[in-house]
Give the backbone structure.
Amino acid sequence: MREQKFNLLIKELSVCKKCTNMKCSNKSLINIYINYDFCMNIPSIWTDWFNRLNSEMMIIGQDWGPYSDMKKSHVLLNKDKTNWKELIESEKSTTKKMLERFISMSSNNKYSLDNIYITNAIMCARQGNTYRGDNIDLKISTLNCSEYLLKQIEIVRPKVILTLGYYPLMSLSKIFKFNIEKTLKETISKLPEILMDDFVIIPMYHPVAQVKKEEQLKQYRKIWKYLDLKNRHNNEKGEENE
């Protein structure tokens, strides 16, 4: 059922033109979902979606970066799982390394990125070759894409959602109607954990942000408290029903 719903979501994404037809052409994005085979086979930990639809945890980043980089990786992909894994391991992304490190350190090596659903607030890719700069309107594109983020949350039904940086958190604040501060630092200070009915949102600094390691880990350690509590609650409910 989740796979079917996710297939429908990809089809919706494939016809979306909200950010591909923006008036400022230098800030328009590239829809990577038009080619279904391509978007389902990008060799990256970020997009191994169909194997992660039952994840307890969801990580939401900002955007995919340049389409040109995704295309290069796709050329290297053979249609076997071994090749996929090799490409994942060969990635030199600092973001991936730091994220893996914080997840591992905060969970005493019990968790890794392998079993976490990872997505972005902005689902299309950038033009050009740069990950930063003003070739994207972060606020407008984030809000344009919020309906697709909500659908992913409804399909996966995670227990814990981590947001990396300000814009993913801004998207969730609009979707679920809670207030955040003007900066991420102020928000984390006032709202280090945001409790919803079925899950908790834990706002994070971006893994490569100039923030002390201990300050980063303080947020990551909150994850396991909520996963443990929810798992314990589910076990108790199961025992009651026996």
Remarks:
- Residues 13 and 179 are 28 Å apart (CA to CA).
- The longest strand covers residues 57-61.
